[in-house]
Design brief:
Number of strands: 2
Order of helices and strands: HHHHEE
Number of helices: 4
Strand order of the largest sheet: 1-2
Structural class: mainly alpha
Largest sheet: 2 strands, antiparallel
Low-confidence stretches: none
Radius of gyration: 22 Å
């Protein structure tokens, strides 16, 4: 009976180690992806201004786009740039981005939203 319990403990310990090593090889990919995402968002944040002007202008009219769209675009540009800076500063912790879409060029006709970050 004592041998069976020892074998179960050893098997359990090996299975825990195997799971961690399987997840460990994905860590560098997630870290590099977050760093790239952060750099892209920090640099391209200013592109939120014309993007938001275009989206609001198409939806609500030119005047609305040039006023409300411009102000909202500035807020989104600051948010995307700060999100990128945060991702650069914390790239060793693999979380998702605060901004959706993750890159500005993914869906240029979709309004930018800010969400809660989650572990990757």
């Amino acid at each position: 009976m004592k041998k069976v319990i020892q074998m179960l403990i050893i098997t359990f310990a090996i299975s825990l180690t195997a799971t961690n090593s399987a997840l460990a090889h994905q860590y560098p990919d997630k870290v590099v992806e977050k760093l790239g995402n952060g750099l892209a968002n920090a640099v391209t944040g200013v592109a939120e201004i014309p993007k938001t002007i275009s989206i609001v202008g198409n939806k609500d009219g030119v005047v609305h786009g040039m006023t409300i769209g411009f102000i909202t675009g500035i807020a989104n540009a600051v948010g995307r740039s700060l999100s990128g800076a945060f991702d650069i500063a914390t790239f060793l912790i693999p979380t998702t981005s605060f901004v959706k879409p993750a890159y500005i060029w993914e869906d240029f006709s979709r309004e930018t939203t800010f969400v809660e970050a989650k572990m990757r």
